Amino acid sequence: MSSTLTLQVNGQAQQVSAPPNTPLLYVLRNDLQLKAAKFGCGLGQCGACSVLVEGRRTLSCDTPLWACEGKAITTLEGMGNPDKLSALQQAFIDEQAAQCGYCVPGILVSAQALINRTPKPTEAEIIQALNENLCRCGTHTRFVRAVLRATGQSQVTA
Ligand code: FES
Ligand code: FES
């Protein structure tokens, strides 16, 4: 049975009507038209659906709506936009850190969660933080470089 819940998404209150056990990912993509978070495995194993809940990485395919009510949810759309990119988003562009791009929203969210708790992460910390985000294109080396760049820890290369 559907319930009406109020979610705080990217700084805005959003009323949604859905069964409380609906995965957050479905509501973000289908009700709120926030398409950055992706459906990958649907089983909590790939990281493509990552969003921030209270600043922490959360797998939205595996998180029911009822657990999100009243909490601050941030999707990639809330981290920046084409007119005002975040430092992390700009660094991913500068490092050309994407191939097909399917995993990249989840990678950016996981990297932002890391930076939220560790503003200048080491390379080992970045690798560990991104370890649970799968990338079939094998782009992790560039992701690590981009996070180092975004946190002011890498030399700018031509
Ligand atoms: S789609 Fe959520 S972890 Fe894979
Ligand atoms: S860039 Fe293609 S899956 Fe990661």
Outline:
By secondary structure, the chain is of the alpha+beta class. The chain is built from six helices and five strands; from the N terminus they run E-E-H-E-E-E-H-H-H-H-H.
Which key features would you list for this structure?
158 residues, Ubiquitin-like (UB roll), DNA polymerase, domain 1, 2 domains, five-stranded mixed sheet, 16% strand, binds FE2/S2 (inorganic) cluster
Structure in words:
It is a single chain. By secondary structure, the protein is α+β, with helices and mostly antiparallel strands. The chain folds into two domains: 3-79, Ubiquitin-like (UB roll) (Roll), CATH 3.10.20; 87-150, DNA polymerase, domain 1 (Orthogonal Bundle). 34% of the residues lie in helices and 16% in strands. The protein contains six helices and five strands. The chain has helices at 24-31, 76-79, 87-94, 104-117, 123-130, 140-150, and strands at 3-9, 12-18, 50-53, 56-59, 72-74. β3 and β4 (56-59) form a beta hairpin. Bound molecules: FE2/S2 (inorganic) cluster (FES) (2 copies). One FE2/S2 (inorganic) cluster binds next to loops.
